[in-house]
Amino acid sequence: MSIVRNASAIAKGMSITLKEMFQPTEVENYPDGKGPMRGAKFQERFRGKHQLQRDENGLEKCVACYLCAAACPSNCIYIEAADNTAEKRISSSERFAKVYNIDYNRCIFCGYCVEACPTDAITHGHGFELASLNATTLVMRKEDLLVPAPHLPDAVESDRDTAEVLA
């Protein structure tokens, strides 16, 4: 009795396998075919390449508090702080991150840095194509992580000229 039951279970499994084996396969021609960079939607919680955000005036949100670097379990964030001057405003705070590097050789995309940031300066974007044969290209500098400055209205542009914001 158990032999018949086992044989029927095997036959049922093999019938599913044979039926699927002869179905046409769908192959995506990556990277030329459709994909995330060509219209696919990401979930809001997707943890991709980090982004350093700017405020509504185009100034950097990062105040160089080092909380993201302290929260990082893989120790992949390196920050050097500098003070803002009256002639050159980089952020709205007293300090800004002169150097902000993330080493993607070590990053585990845990999101602790995003959660620790009090100003919401660092977020996860949707970039995911970070593979490289050269390990030095996986160390992203501040210039690589900063979102582009928004185009501002003329009234804000005049304030911006006096404050001189670095891109």
From TrEMBL:
InterPro entries in the record: 4Fe4S_Fe-S-bd, 4Fe4S_Fe_S_CS, NADH_quinone_OxRdtase_chainI
Protein topology in the membrane: Peripheral membrane protein
Cofactor: how and how many bound: Binds 2 [4Fe-4S] clusters per subunit.
GO biological process entries: aerobic respiration
UniProt entry keywords in alphabetical sequence: 4Fe-4S, Cell membrane, Iron, Iron-sulfur, Membrane, Metal-binding, NAD, Quinone, Repeat, Translocase, Ubiquinone
Record: residues binding [4Fe-4S] cluster 2: 72, 107, 110, 113
Chemical reaction(s) catalysed: a quinone + NADH + 5 H(+)(in) = a quinol + NAD(+) + 4 H(+)(out)
Keyword Iron assigned: yes
Names of required cofactors: [4Fe-4S] cluster
EC number: 7.1.1.-
Domain 4Fe-4S ferredoxin-type: 50-82, 98-127
The keyword Protease is annotated on this UniProt entry: no
GO CC annotation: plasma membrane
Record localization: Cell membrane
NCBIfam families: NuoI, PRK05888.1-3
Subunit structure: NDH-1 is composed of 14 different subunits. Subunits NuoA, H, J, K, L, M, N constitute the membrane sector of the complex.
Purpose of the protein: NDH-1 shuttles electrons from NADH, via FMN and iron-sulfur (Fe-S) centers, to quinones in the respiratory chain. The immediate electron acceptor for the enzyme in this species is believed to be ubiquinone. Couples the redox reaction to proton translocation (for every two electrons transferred, four hydrogen ions are translocated across the cytoplasmic membrane), and thus conserves the redox energy in a proton gradient.
Family that this chain belongs to: Belongs to the complex I 23 kDa subunit family.
Protein name: NADH-quinone oxidoreductase subunit I
Gene assigned in the entry: nuoI
